[in-house]
Amino acid sequence: MTRWYTMSAVDASFFDTAPHVYSFVHDLPVSPERVWESLVSDESVAAWTPLLHSIEWTSPRPLGVGSTRTVVLPTKAITIHEYFFRWEEGHRYSFYGVDANLPLFARFAEDYIVEPSGNGTRFTWTFALEGTPKTRLAMKAMSPVNRANFGAMARGSKSYFAKHP
Fold this sequence. Notes:
Layout: E1 5-6, H1 14-17, E2 20-28, H2 32-39, E3 54-57, E4 68-72, E5 79-88, E6 92-100, E7 105-117, E8 120-131, H3 136-141, H4 143-163
Antiparallel strand pairs: 1-6, 2-8, 3-4, 4-5, 5-6, 6-7, 7-8
């Protein structure tokens, strides 16, 4: 039986106060409606990057504040349950990790912003995290690796929408 490690809930201020915040901004050559459609699809950002194995919405549609989903990383070694605490339809959503099958994070959250920009969309993806007392030092040491991995996930949006306009 899988053991689950609880993470603390956060609010929007965590994106300003977390020990580790990584934010990536990309201009995409598709409409904001197209980006949003992909974000709320069954695959969501798992379709954009090989760094996620799967995403499963565990709430019925329509999605909004209170929605939940499960994310599995590619090795299937890490699974995180997520709770959406901010939802601005067509523009923005934010969630935090509720629990994970490994005790890596005390708090974990992501924020997605979709805005019109020129002939396409400005997409901002922010990750905020805090390690547990046992993982804080390792997380600090791994910060450049985390930045690179999260950046690769965000950059995946460009190649995805180039192939799937």
